[in-house]
Structures are given as structure tokens and as C-alpha cells.
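User: Could you write out the 3D structure of this protein bound to zinc ion? I've included everything you need below.
Assistant: Certainly. Input first, then the structure.
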Amino acid sequence: MKIFNTLTRRKDEFVPIEEGKVRMYVCGPTVYNYIHIGNARPMIVFDTVRRYFEYKGYDVNYVSNFTDVDDKIIKKANEEGVDASVISERFIKEAQKDMADMNVKEATHHPKATEEIDGMIDMIQTLINKGHAYAVDGTVYFKTRSFKDYGKLSKKNIDDLEAGHREIKVNGEEGKEDPLDFVLWKPKKEGEPSWPSPWGDGRPGWHIECSVMSKKYLGEQIDIHAGGEDLIFPHHENEIAQSEACNDKEFAHYWMHNGFLNINNVKMSKSLGNFFTVREIAEKYDLQVLRFFMLSAHYRSPLNFSAELMEASRNGLERILTAVDRLRTLNVQGEACTEEENEQMKVFDALVAKYEAAMEDDFNTADAISAIFEMVKAANIHVTETSTAAFRDQILSEIVRLCDVLGIKTEKKEELLDDEIQALIDERQAARKAKNFARADEIRDELLAKGIILKDTREGVKWSRAQNPLVHGFANFIIWTSRMSGNILP
Ligand code: AMP
Ligand code: ZN
């Protein structure tokens, strides 16, 4: 299996530290808001990497943290007049809901930074004892030049970095010995969460959190460390410096980074304000469609989010689900495969091999999905009422298995029954009579989301099933995307 390693800038053959096992750490979100679809990209792609390792028989210890102490969380808490933990706990729960809806498996461990402060204090103390860090007036800095390999991940030259930093002086960091040094522990400020430490009350810097949580749950050396490409510098570079200076061992063997998700070809980020939360997308689309969309591109390529591509993903996914549904309900008979079926089976085996080859080549999910499409096409042709159950079952289970590795669920969503629709329409009429228009609109939207269109006529409310339940989401979506480009439709 080949993995593109940011450390070597080439595809390296994967060799685990311990046979049959993978130790993997993925930097998780800072929880001060709902997660946006950019945050969803690493969650989906690295969950797929994990699932593929499991498919190959590896036992994966998958750790992904929540950063629950940070300036942005504190700012939001102050705005709402609540404790920072109220904000972080709220958005951890919301992130977990979104992750479950995107079929992202629960991590083996989901550590929270605030629950690992003791380990951070220990690592910082070790770094001080080894001459890699120093404390000044309650702040502890990492002595960047003391780590000779600094820059090896981001390929930055330390002297160039120094030149770029020379003029920059940040308030409160006057005690820094070298502009390249970065903060491991910062002193308490009024109204901020803090913990006691040998250097006074304060809180940890962001980078030390991941070095510590990774060490605690995975050990001093891990196989894979992953995150979005924006984390290469300084976050991951600093993690390497801290962990390797502390443990005297190479930290992670493979560094994987996903490309950015853009909107209208502009980087999507909270600071630019051009982002969609996963929750907003869930109002219009089944999150399986979002997952399928993310996997239809290679994880290292930039990916542009657009209504057209979401539509294409919805259609592609529908094609697979419809084929699986047909196979499940097909009226077949006969136990053992016929000679002819055994011959045809070779076509399917070759496609499974094609799928695996794509995944083994740095997780090329786009090509893996093409192999699934070819299987679906072949199944539509070769599996019919005259096929044996054995043949159908093998092909069905193979397609379902390969979809499952991508985290794609193959069961069709339950449709609303006619009686249920009528009951909701009656409830809506009652709500209108009672002038509860909010509830009436809510029911109409709920039905619309399930592809049921209401029409008020003189004879009463009539309803129909939309051919394409997501068409309505699509219409709204166009309005959203134009909102993003400042080009609002009339
Ligand atoms: P943050 O909450 O900003 O620390 O981000 C959590 C994870 O989401 C990190 O791995 C980021 O690199 C990743 N991420 C943030 N924005 C995007 C984006 N627009 N596209 C892809 N990944 C992103
Ligand atoms: Zn991290």
C-alpha cells in the first residue's frame, strides 16, 4: 500500500511499526461553532483510510481530538456570558451528531484537550529539563533552534523563517529569546479558563495538546498523523519539534494532508465567512451525498463545492443504491453458480482488484468509485431473474462491502407511507386554522425534504411525490451559492 508522505514528498510503501496494527492520529476541530464542510473533509477522508486498513485486516487505533480550549471558544463564551466549557461541550455534541450522520466511525479515543492538562505539564517540564524550553514570567516557550530538524516537514529553512519574523513583535511576548520560539504554556488572563502549573496558573498552547494526546493514546511513535494541509506549518512542524525533542524518537512515519475545500474556487474558511456548516447541508441533502461528493475527488486535490457537483454526486449515489435495491429484491432461484456465472464472476473479481489497486495507490477513492460503477453496470446486465441466488448473493455482498469501505450505506431511505403523509397534512391544516403558521410551514418543509410536494387547491390539499426529492434542495442551493458569490438571484 502506498501513501503520499508529506515528510518525504513522495508515495512511500506503508510498513507498520507493529505488524497488523495501525496507530493513527487525526487533528480534530476547535469546537466553538457547528463544524463546516471544510472540517468534514478530513473527517470523511481519514475515516475512509481507517476503513480501508480495517478491510485489509489491520487493527486500527484511531485517535482524533477535540480542541476545547482556545481563544475563539473563550470569545464566544464571553459573548454569551457562559463558561467556556458550556460552549465546547455544546459543539462537541453537535460535531458528534454530524459525524454520525456522515457515517464517520467513532474514534477509538476522542480525547479533549482540557482533560489532558497534566500530561501537557509533564511534557513541558521534560522539555525545560532537556534545555528545549524556558519559562519567562509565567509563559513557557519552545526553543525552536534547539531542535536541529526544525522545518523538515514543511521544508522551510530556519534562517528564512528568522528573516520573516525579525520585525514582528507580539504584545505580551517580550520575554521571548528568539522570534522563532513558540508558546507551550500561556499565563492566565482575567475571565479565561486556567489550570495551576509550576509556572503559574495558565493554559496550554495549541501544538502541545496534540503531541501529548497522541503520546498518551498511541505511544511515542505512531504510524500516521493526519489533518488538513493548512496544518503542515506551523502546527505539525511544531508537534514534530516538541515530540521528537521530548522522546528522542521519530514521531510519525507518515504524514497525510488533505487538500482544501473551496467555494466558487475561493478557499472556504470561517474567517472569510464563505462557509456552509454540515448542518446547513443536512437540511437539503442526505449527508451520504456529501460523503460521496468528498470521495469522488482525490483527497489531496483541492475540491470545489458547487450545486452542480452535489447534484452529480446525488445522481451517482442514486445509481448505486438503485442497483443494490434491485439485486436485493430480485426473484432468483438455484443454489450453486452455473458454469456461465462462474465465468462472469471473473469480471467482478477483476473489478474488485481494480478497486483495491486504486485504494492501495494513496487512497484514490475517485478511481475506487469508478470500479464500483463498473460493477453496478455489470450487475445490471448480468444478474437477472434467471440468475442463481448464489451468484446474486456474491455480487450483492461484494458491492455492499466495497461501498461500506467508503462509508456509503446501501440501504435505501425509508419512504413516507401515504397514511403518514395524510396525517401530517391534517396536522398542518389544524395548525393553520389555529394560526400557528410556524408549525404549518415546518410540516410543509419536512414533507418537501422527503420529496412530497403539497398543492393547495379549491378541493383541498393535494400532494404528489417528486421524481427527484432533492430538486428542491437544489433550487435552494443555487440561491445559497449565489449568496456566497455576492450574486443573488432574483
Ligand atoms: P480547525 O477547527 O480549523 O482546527 O480545523 C479542523 C480540521 O479541518 C483541520 O484538519 C483543518 O485542516 C481542516 N479544515 C479546515 N478548513 C478546511 C477546508 N476548507 N478544507 C479542508 N479541510 C479543512
Ligand atoms: Zn493537532
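The pocket of adenosine monophosphate (ligand 1) is lined by residues 27, 29-30, 38-39, 41-42, 227-228, 230-231, 258, 260-261, 268-269 (CB under 6 Å).
User: Perfect, thank you.
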